[in-house]
Specification:
The chain is α/β, with parallel strands linked by helices. It has helices spanning about 55-70, 90-100, 120-125, 140-145, 160-180, 200-210, 235-245, 270-280, 340-350, 365-370, 385-390; strands at about 20, 30-35, 75-80, 105-110, 130-135, 150-155, 155-160, 185-190, 215-220, 250-255, 265, 270, 295, 305, 315-320, 325-330, 355-360, 375-380, 380-385.
């Protein structure tokens, strides 16, 4: 079945059959919208920026497992806040990696302002993210200066027209990059009376030319204590006219439910039980290695454990099967010369689905980083199968001894910059 036809936000008919869930793993934001007042504990509001709690990536996986048992119609897993996914890039990408391992058949989507999206597009495509929503509120920096209080990009805060220019440049650049990866793109525009309500047509024409698939014009609802709390809501007649206008350039979406950052269920009919479930998982203490099924090995040839981790340009990945141990694949390790970033990438990306790593030697820094990420480190010499027995069957290493590595890495501190 076409993925679009199972995504309730991209196809109006799908909303009656297929459910979605938003995972609230991204609390921070990199812009301040004048119409937004983010709250995490209000159960009576249904709008973006609202969530009853925030989950860690592994808490989100446990929540999804429980939710999917009660909600067989669940087809879409998304991340939409309550801040911006890429102001919380580590949490967002970690969530996608571990969830993809558990739910390979689901549709994955994201909703973002696009400010810090571009560096992650390649990996998003690799992880199977098929739908991305970008909120773009104007093509005019002077209008954006009125809508946003500030924009924080690459550790610098921009305000006024300059902030609008920085935001818009990044947003528009992302559309063709996403389309080049085969990702469906929906544009959200929050219609603010007296500010951007006359600019929808020009925005629709521009994003359509860049390849966007559909556009959703959302009436701004005043939020208490927000800068725009005084602005009136656009009328139904105004919104109808705006949607008719953009239809000349792009397919309009008219069934948006303005979902919360922790929404779950059919569009417009959130599951009440899910709201109570999510609170239970937000306080759950999770072993960071829990749920991982594979083991990585530093090896020259895939038979023996015989490489120091710092030397390994690749690792062999295995998992347990009914017939013993199954070789999964060879993965390249991050390039040296990047200090601690090398070991963080190894732990959080390369070995994200691994519960343990077998090595002949290892430095202090990678040892600490891997263990902090829930990955067990076993230093040894000998047959890989014997090491796998130690991991999966909890058998002693017997004749295998702990590696007494005397070549590269004898006094390695694991700086990630290579051997001197």
């Amino acid at each position: 079945m076409n993925n679009e036809l199972r995504h309730p936000c991209f196809d109006a008919d799908a909303r009656r059959q297929y459910a979605r869930v938003h995972l609230p793993v991204a609390p921070r934001c990199n812009i301040q919208c004048n119409y937004c007042n983010r709250k995490y504990d209000c159960v009576n509001e249904s709008r973006p920026g609202v969530s009853s709690t925030v989950l860690s990536p592994l808490q989100a996986v446990h929540y999804l497992k429980a939710l999917s048992e009660k909600m067989p119609e669940l087809s879409v897993i998304g991340i939409a806040g309550p801040g911006d996914p890429f102001a919380n890039a580590d949490e967002t990408m970690q969530t996608l990696r571990v969830v993809r391992q558990e739910f390979p058949d689901k549709i994955f989507c994201l909703s973002t302002n696009g400010l810090e999206l571009a560096p992650y597009i390649d990996e998003l495509a690799e992880l199977g993210v098929s739908h991305v929503t970008l909120t773009i509120n104007s093509l005019r920096p002077e209008t954006l200066a009125k809508i946003y209080k500030w924009v924080r990009f690459q550790r610098r805060v921009y305000r006024g027209v300059e902030g609008g220019q920085v935001l818009l440049e990044q947003q528009l650049a992302c559309i063709p990059l996403l389309k080049a990866k085969g990702i469906m793109v929906k544009i959200n525009m929050v219609v603010c009376v007296g500010l951007n309500d006359g600019e929808a047509d020009e925005l629709a024409q521009k994003v359509a030319a860049l390849g966007a698939d559909t556009m959703n014009c959302i009436p701004m609802y005043p939020a208490d204590n927000a800068e725009f709390a005084f602005l009136p809501e656009p009328s139904k007649e105004q919104m109808k006219a705006i949607r008719q206008g953009i239809a000349k350039y792009i397919r309009p979406m008219a069934h948006c439910a303005r979902c919360r950052a922790d929404a779950a269920g059919l569009l417009g009919h959130d599951n009440v039980e899910a709201m109570s479930m999510i609170g239970q998982f937000s306080t759950m203490v999770v072993n960071r290695g829990e749920g991982r099924t594979r083991v990585a090995v530093a090896s020259h040839e895939g038979i023996l454990v015989n490489l120091h981790l710092g030397e390994a340009r690749k690792v062999y990945v295995f998992e347990q099967s009914r017939n013993g141990y199954h070789f999964v694949e060879i993965r390249n390790t991050p390039a040296e010369g990047r200090g601690m970033d090398r070991w963080r990438e190894l732990a959080e990306k390369t070995l994200v689905d691994c519960q343990a790593v077998l090595v002949a030697g290892i430095g202090e820094n990678p040892m600490r980083t891997l263990q902090q990420n829930g990955i067990r480190v076993i230093q040894m010499n000998g047959l890989i199968d014997s090491g796998l027995d130690a991991v999966y069957l909890n058998l002693p290493l017997k004749t295998l001894c702990r590696s007494e590595y005397t070549r590269c890495g004898e006094s390695c501190r694991g700086t990630g910059t290579g051997c001197g």
